[in-house]
Amino acid sequence: MIRLLMPRLALRHRLSALSGRVSRSAPWRRRPIAFLCYFLSVRALRPLAKRVALYHSFPTRLLSRAWGRLNGVELPTWLRKPVYSLYIWTFGVNMQEAAVEDLHHYRNLGEFFRRQLKPAVRPLCASSCLISPADGRILHFGRVQNSQVEQVKGVTYSLEHFLGPQRGRSQDASRSFQDLLLSSPQNDLFHVVVYLAPGDYHCFHSPADWRVELRRHFPGSLMSVNPGVARLVKELFCLNERVALSGQWQHGFFSLTAVGATNVGSIRVYFDQDLQTNAPRYSKGSFHDRSYVALDDQVLKAADEGGVASVEGGGVASGEGVVLQRGAAVGEFNLGSTIVLLFEAPKDFSFDLQPGQRIRVGEGLGSL
After folding, report:
1. For 71, which of 7, 37, 288, 335 is 20 to 30 Å away at the CA?
2. Does the pLDDT of residue 44 top 50, yes or no?
């Protein structure tokens, strides 16, 4: 066998050397091949671009409103168990964690999606300064670089487009948008993205002790935030409807953004009864602000003589904003969606996470 292979190997070596000399002497011969490869790659991308554009034009907002109305339809008692059992089987819902396990208790799909959990099933991590705000899967995490955030590996979106202009902060043109958010040059800006699947617990909680100063609502599309779609649609999180809560925590800037998705037009924030998402009409690129620092009478209608009002979910409203305790319930989705955390922290902050790992409310995200 060795004797048979040796001539073949020698012949291959001579042929490769010959082809190498021909290639070096005539580089123009490679150009048609390179052009053909480029042409084929462009042809392959065209259908994908068309599919993305077609998907973007799909009436996802209308479908989401229709789905929302369907969720509010009361089901006959005899139909509830088979309908919910099918959903449980399809999406792997763990009903043993639900505060009420009896499926007949939930009058409609909306109540079933927003089911509460038993108090003991989501303990808060004592060793971490930051905990998960939701049940789900970690899509991405890390430092924000050059005012760009990764929605999935290799696909970024603009931090400024995502959060919008920051009023009341320095407008120094020589500083990046990312630097304008930081209160100290000794800190960095970090991010983490949690994807909630349809079978996950749909409420989201406060990941830290912090003060919410502003709610900014961005009307927009309601495309799926499934990781497969997030890899294809650039700046997906900037295009979709979202509610950004921003303020301060012990290390500086802090923001929690609930991103809507198909069939998730309804985003509810417990301490903000004025918030209305997925309206029939909206202006593209617009956003609506509500400041909690100068709170109006409606927010403070339950205020005591000291000017402090308790709000649903465990927060406290005052003239300095809405103070949220770590683990307090903040709001809920109508179905699965995405939570994006952006926060300032010392440079030595480290994540205790792995890409794609499953995580639950109260589990640690990182530490100092």
Report:
1. 288
2. no
